[in-house]
Backbone:
């Protein structure tokens, strides 16, 4: 069971679009700054900025966590195994896996968590260690990779001018990277589960729930289950896509 506490910001009253610099930065550990970008009922998308030499102590939580290194170089230790994850690498600590990190160079990463990390939301008033309940699960993710470089990812042609790189997937969330040529279109589709996106480079015109926004680098969006979504790239664009795979308990 994942603890829940009251938060001032609940899923129904937050902006579905966000620019990272507009979100407050929280120094959660020496050398680690967190910005929670968008969140819903099933997942949240978080940007971390980390200073060279910073250390993330080993810990575990029941949430699945998938991340992508946008800048810098990080060594992730997952279940006792080290994974060098420089720029362009994806990592995935599964539910209950003990993991930590050493920051080898100034770095920026974007992570998604499912179920929702309520302790990362604005206005959270529960205990600081609420997310770290339960026992570690040494067998979690057995047979699944904990890291993957984008050059190792399987590429699929999704539409004209649109290529999807399949990164890492768990039981609750999966991450992919979309590459769009200028003018490429993502035809309108209705989101089955929640989906969060983060623009790495370029500009994309995003239409969701009847609202259209042009998003640039370091912008995020959240589509709720059942919402129609469509997009057109204004310039060549790369964006990270995280999809929820199961309904929350």
Residues:
């Amino acid at each position: 069971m994942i603890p829940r506490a009251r938060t001032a910001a609940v899923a129904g009253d937050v902006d579905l679009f966000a620019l990272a610099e507009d979100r407050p930065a929280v120094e959660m550990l020496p050398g680690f700054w967190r910005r929670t970008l968008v969140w819903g009922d099933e997942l949240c998308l978080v940007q971390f900025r980390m200073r060279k030499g910073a250390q993330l102590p080993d810990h575990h939580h029941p949430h699945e966590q998938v991340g992508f290194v946008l800048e810098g170089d990080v060594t992730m230790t997952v279940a006792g195994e080290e994974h060098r994850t420089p720029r362009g690498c994806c990592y995935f600590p599964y539910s209950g896996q003990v993991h930590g990190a050493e920051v080898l160079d100034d770095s920026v990463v974007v992570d998604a968590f499912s179920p929702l990390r309520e302790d990362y939301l604005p206005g959270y008033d529960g205990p600081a260690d609420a997310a770290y309940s339960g026992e570690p699960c040494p067998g979690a993710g057995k047979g699944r990779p904990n890291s993957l470089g984008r050059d190792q990812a399987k590429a699929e042609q999704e539409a004209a001018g649109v290529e999807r790189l399949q990164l890492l997937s768990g039981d609750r969330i999966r991450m992919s990277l979309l590459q769009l040529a200028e003018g490429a279109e993502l035809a309108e589709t209705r989101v089955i589960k929640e989906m969060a996106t983060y623009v790495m480079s370029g500009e994309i015109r995003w239409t969701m729930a009847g609202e259209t926004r042009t998003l640039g680098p370091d912008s995020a969006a959240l589509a709720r289950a059942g919402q129609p979504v469509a997009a057109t790239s204004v310039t060549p664009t790369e964006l990270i896509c995280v999809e929820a795979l199961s309904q929350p308990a």
Summary: The chain has no helices and 20 strands. Residues 150-244 form a domain with the Jelly Rolls fold (CATH 2.60.120.10). The CA atoms of residues 69 and 109 lie 4 Å apart. The chain has a mean pLDDT of 91.
